[in-house]
Amino acid sequence: MKVFGVLAACIMLLQSSVICRNLKVVPIEDKDYWYQEGKNRIQNQLTKKLSVNRAKNVIIFVGDGMGLTTITASRIYKGQINGELGEENYHSFELFPGVGLIKTYNTDMQVPDSAGTATAMFSGIKTKSGTFGIDATLPTGECDPAVYEAAKVDSILKWAQDAGKRTGVVTTTRITHATPAAAYAHVSDRDWECDSEIPSQYRDCMKDIARQLVEDSPGKDINVIFGGGQQQFGFGNGDGSCVREDGLNLTAVWEENRKAEGVSHRFVTTKGQMEELSTEEKVLGLFDFGHMAYELERENTEQPSIVNMTVKAIRMLQKAENGFVLIVEGGRIDHAHHDNYAKLALTEAIMFDEAIAAAVAMTSRENTLIVVTADHSHSLTFNGYPERGNDILGFAHNESDKKPVYETLTYANGPGFNVHRKEGAIGAEDYLWRDPTLMEDRDEMYYRHFAPIFEKSETHGGEDVAIYAIGPFSHLFNGVFEQSYIAHAVSCIGNFGPSKYLCNSSISVKAVSVLVLIMSYISSRLV
Ligand SMILES: *[C@@H]1O[C@H](CO)[C@@H](O)[C@H](O)[C@H]1NC(C)=O
Ligand SMILES: *[C@@H]1O[C@H](CO)[C@@H](O)[C@H](O)[C@H]1NC(C)=O
Ligand SMILES: *[C@@H]1O[C@H](CO)[C@@H](O)[C@H](O)[C@H]1NC(C)=O
Ligand SMILES: *[C@@H]1O[C@H](CO)[C@@H](O)[C@H](O)[C@H]1NC(C)=O
Ligand SMILES: [Zn+2]
């Protein structure tokens, strides 16, 4: 094999499958290379067996806004950071055996928001955008007590708690932000993160999201809660997104309530304190006033990375006898995209993958289902004719006679519009856009990629997102599904919640495969 130089990076996924790739060596990608690549992958695929164990533990990773373009671009970016050309790289989760596509629309929107999509993923029902933990019968932004009660739906966390499992939620956003909050709260407006956001006529009907986490089921019974959002709990101003008017200090209330329950518990605000946690039954970690720092901003903070939080959460939850369910959100991929900050978004996606790889390393394929998906996509596009190995954050072609020069990664809309618009350009013969090769801040994390339509906040995208699964029954995710299917499949595989026992019948699958083995053995002896 003339192809491989140094086999420096191996990703171990299944016990029996190792995929290795070469680092810093430009392979000769002739026909032998591709034949070998194809054969290796077949051998790898053939080692994958249908697993019909039940999952004792479930970890659901949600890359907020991590559409397929983000996955491809961040895979290349990571490869390039490691000195490779980039295109041949894989994220760890891309080698999972179960892979499918997810239809993300909300009941009222073709292109969805995170509130409706999180309700689909976590409660198994689609609902309206901007609302979560309720079905589509309650008018958005309103509250009628009887309709509200009837509209409420339970989440995976509630199903798991009822089955005696421990539960956890980890996010890099405010813990009260739509995606994590849909796992425990029920609101007709995702902005009701603290009391002052709720119109006064509804405050008796519906609690704010932070209070629901601290006081109500399943929030109060969650064992591990890590994220940002101190201001929603009554501390200071943060980013000013929500300042409590009721004077409650909800972390103090959380501590009092856990004390009244008689469970060991601790509230922490720094990475150092988080690392000290060990045997507490319930922990609340709020590491920022608002959203946590982007990974590239984190250096001078006392905040843990998403990898640190994921590892700690799994360690704490692994103490559970009956298993656990953990939700981990890489929440700021989405925020970076909304600002057209492609470099920040790709870096967040890479860190998200590292958290997934850490979770795979700490758990068993026999008893732990790991699912990786996104709630929705973004308007990011990846195009032009850049050469192989071209800087993924660079330009779409590199031939001096080809004008205009533009970026490989651009957005269909967003605030990048203003950065790129040429001062005084009037259109037609007068080209409207600045030459990006002359923009001096292109390497900076807050550089905004091009957008031809102005939007203060870049928008989500409506195409399908991917889902990847490893562990018991990962093949249940092979196909194209409604997003609400995810919760049902997890319920079936984990043997808790409304689809409990539906995966029972697969015991016969096990029996059939044993039978087939015996028969093929017998027939081989006969021949
Ligand atoms: C709220 O209570 C926590 C303890 O849970 C305490 O550390 C914090 O200082 C309190 N915040 C305010 C604003 O009183
Ligand atoms: C925290 O995570 C970073 C990567 O994000 C890693 O380099 C570091 O070792 C981790 N720290 C601990 C204490 O696990
Ligand atoms: C074009 O390619 C040349 C040589 O490969 C390289 O030095 C240059 O930086 C590239 N220019 C752009 C705009 O990417
Ligand atoms: C599934 O198996 C459980 C035991 O694990 C049993 O209690 C239950 O009745 C079975 N349900 C069905 C529908 O087969
Ligand atoms: Zn968003």
Biggest beta sheet summary: 10 strands, mixed
Shape: globular
Q: Tell me the structural class.
A: alpha/beta
Instruction: Count up the helices.
Output: 15
Q: Radius of gyration from the CA trace?
A: 24 Å
Keywords: Cell membrane, Glycoprotein, GPI-anchor, Hydrolase, Lipoprotein, Magnesium, Membrane, Metal-binding, Signal, Zinc
InterPro entries: Alkaline_phosphatase (IPR001952), Alkaline_phosphatase_AS (IPR018299), Alkaline_phosphatase_core_sf (IPR017850)
Pfam families: Alk_phosphatase
GO molecular function, one term: alkaline phosphatase activity
Features:
single chain; 527 residues; alpha/beta; two-stranded antiparallel ribbon; 16 strands; binds 2-acetamido-2-deoxy-beta-D-glucopyranose; binds zinc ion; signal; metal-binding
Explain what you see.
It catalyses: a phosphate monoester + H2O = an alcohol + phosphate. One of its GO terms (cellular component) is side of membrane. The longest helix has 21 residues, at 342-362. α7 runs parallel beside α8 (250-261). The protein has 15 helices and 16 strands. The relative contact order is 0.17. The model is unreliable at 1-24 (pLDDT under 50). It is α/β, with parallel strands linked by helices and 527 residues long. 30% of the residues lie in helices and 15% in strands.
Summarize this entry quickly.
The protein is of the alpha/beta class and 527 residues long. It is built from 15 helices and 16 strands.
Blueprint (SSEs and pairs):
Layout lengths: L6 E6 L5 E5 L8 H16 L10 E7 L4 H14 L16 E6 L10 H10 L21 H7 L4 H7 L3 E9 L3 H4 L27 H7 L8 E5 L21 H12 L3 E4 L2 H6 L5 E5 L19 H12 L6 E7 L1 H7 L3 H21 L5 E7 L2 E2 L1 E3 L26 E3 L4 H5 L39 E2 L3 E6 L8 E4 L2 H10 L11 H21 L1
Parallel strand pairs: 3-9, 3-10, 4-16, 5-6, 5-9, 6-8, 7-8
Antiparallel strand pairs: 1-2, 4-15, 10-15, 11-14, 12-13
Helix pairs in contact: 2-12, 3-14, 7-8, 10-12, 11-12
The structure holds 2-acetamido-2-deoxy-beta-D-glucopyranose (4 copies) and zinc ion.
